[in-house]
Amino acid sequence: MILLAWWLDIPASVGIGASVVASIVTLLSYIFPLLPGINSVGRQSLGTFFYAVSVGILVAWFWHIQQPQYAAIGMMVMAWGDGLAALVGQRFGKHKYKLLGAQKSWEGSLTMALASYLVCSLILLGVLGNVWQTWLVSLAVAFVATSLEAFSLLGVDNLTVPLGSAAIAFALIQFWPLH
Q1: To pair with 38 at 20 to 30 A between CA atoms, which of 23, 24, 79, 146?
Q2: Measured at the alpha carbon of residue 42, what is the angle toward residues 143 and 85, in degrees to the nearest 5?
Q3: d(CA 165, CA 77)
Q4: Which pLDDT value is given to residue 96?
Q5: How many folded domains does the chain comprise?
Q6: 8 A C-beta contact, residue 96 and residue 127
Q7: What is the pLDDT of residue 37?
């Protein structure tokens, strides 16, 4: 959805409004069984709520400065990186490790890093082109996103990963300008 909003130049107010509505609905669903699928991860988590909140924060942060690619990086790293990491980790995760009491797998973490690198590279390649910043920033985003996912508990990675990924990409591009 964030890519569509970016490409169609949807106003920030629409994205922020949708985020607020989605956040309220998910919070209500934790109390009342409005959308039982939201709580189906089998553990106590506010992940869906944090995901909706992160959309609003990223749109508010990057739309008004005409830099929506960073919001897209944050959301796509979360969607693809974390989503694929969970699938691969559950299905193929044979090498487990524990971090802050949460069990992870090296296979899932590697998937998070690779998917994050690929997503960020594709977005930056489309915006910046084939320049060294595209590849180095994508590497940094992959490292930061994978670290944040590993250290975040109770679904808070749905907030830390998108915000951290977008923030590091934005900061590094400011630090390493194209000119």
Answers
A1: 146
A2: 25
A3: 7
A4: 84
A5: 1
A6: no
A7: 66
Residues with Cβ within 8 Å of residue 148, at least 6 apart in sequence: 157, 160, 161, 164, 165
Helix (H, G, I), strand (E, B) or coil at 155: coil
Residue 126: predicted pLDDT: 95
* Residue range(s) defining the domain that contains residue 86: 2-175
The owner of tokens 């808070």 is: 156
Q: How far is Cα 83 from Cα 86, in angstroms, rounded to an integer? A: 5
Dig out the tokens for 99 from the structure: 């971090």
Length of the chain: 179
* Tokens representing residue 150 in the block: 């590993």
Task: Assign 10 to helix, strand or coil.
Answer: coil
CA distances from 101 to 42, 54, 149, 150, 153 (A): 16, 25, 14, 11, 9
Contacts of 30 by beta carbon, 8 Å cutoff, 6+ apart: 38, 39, 46, 49
Tell me which residue has tokens 């009491």: 101
pTM above 0.85, yes or no: yes
Which residue, 119, 99, 130, is CA-closest to 165?
A: 119
Helices (H), the chain: 2-7, 12-31, 47-62, 68-76, 83-92, 106-128, 132-151, 157-175
Q: Are 26 and 54 in contact (CB under 8 A)?
A: no
